[in-house]
């Protein structure tokens, strides 16, 4: 039986023509990836950088086709998809630049010689690739967090083949993106198993269990993440699981901020909550607003914007049903008051925004469940001690946001530090949606936001798919070029001192 694909704008399902991948096919794909790994780890960095750029070019060549089919499978607007595809090709090229630059290898050389504890051997260390990586595509980012996305780019940059598990919501988009990547690999002369793809939930489970898979990159629900973690625990040899799982992303507005720019904050908050129909992992799902007239004005503005907003399609039927179920549960079990009830679109999975309100003293874990969609819980507080107590009921998140005036900063230093302890990124006087791809970015956070200390966005995401390895008293013929005595053109730490390549010091 072939897989179906559904247009969330209409609810119409069609045959994708794609067969679920059998267990035997998964094993063959994993073997091809393992064989490719034995080849890829011997390739020079310059070749790998060219591969990444070639994959970006191949995606660009199919841009109109990719945007069209992704729109039909996700309901996301063309402008959003165009921007996301640009982000995807850009990060492939940025990883290519990082591979050329080479500092990510953490190359270090300690020459043999005397030490305070006696003669020391020659030790040379750098990061080396892990092996084939399973990449699980997400529903809400059909490009940037799916088959050609950040996990794929960082794993390939590290020197690993990837096997993508296509998301069931956009199998057609996944297939075309895979074809583009495969074309990029072929043009670069890479082994066929450098990129692979499987379809269907059983295939995803079999892929994670396959002993040839060395790591997993996952963006999705906490429930599915736990299932895959259980599969990994059942392996004879457990492997790293890098999961982005759930996030509520608290936003706190101080009294000074609400008095100075309450109207602007209301507009910015609403835009952040409803962007991409609220289906962003960094959506601020819970916002703390001071009690009193100035806070009331912010709430009233958000309510007015929500009532005037049209329905936007949610990604699939499961998310649509879950959104309404969670919203009802938040009202029934969380002591929240519904200020704006969502309105369903006449067809498909469309839903307009929902706004709930709750007193800070009534916030419980039941009131802070992540609702994937255009919903925000406004928490009214009288002092920051109430905010701190309420935050104890909020799961740790990818982000925490603080809207504050300069005059308040001195008194709020401790509160800001406490807020930072609960997240992986602190946003000040801005909004957490719209994650920049850069060297300094960190897209991660304490459990249950992720189960890792690493980022899944930005150049340091490559660190997830590398392991440290040291050579002791090894002859030059056994050393990678980056650890030989001749300048390889990358930064290195030699006998404790950072040494820049001659191209930078000349």
Automatic annotation (TrEMBL):
Keywords, comma-separated and alphabetical: Oxidoreductase
Domain of life assignment: Bacteria
SUPFAM superfamilies: ALDH-like (SSF53720)
Domain Aldehyde dehydrogenase: 5-438
Gene3D superfamilies for the chain: Aldehyde Dehydrogenase, Chain A, domain 1 (3.40.605.10), Aldehyde Dehydrogenase, Chain A, domain 2 (3.40.309.10)
PANTHER family registered for this protein in UniProt: ALDEHYDE DEHYDROGENASE-RELATED, SUCCINATE-SEMIALDEHYDE DEHYDROGENASE, MITOCHONDRIAL
Name of the featured protein: Aldehyde dehydrogenase (NADP(+))
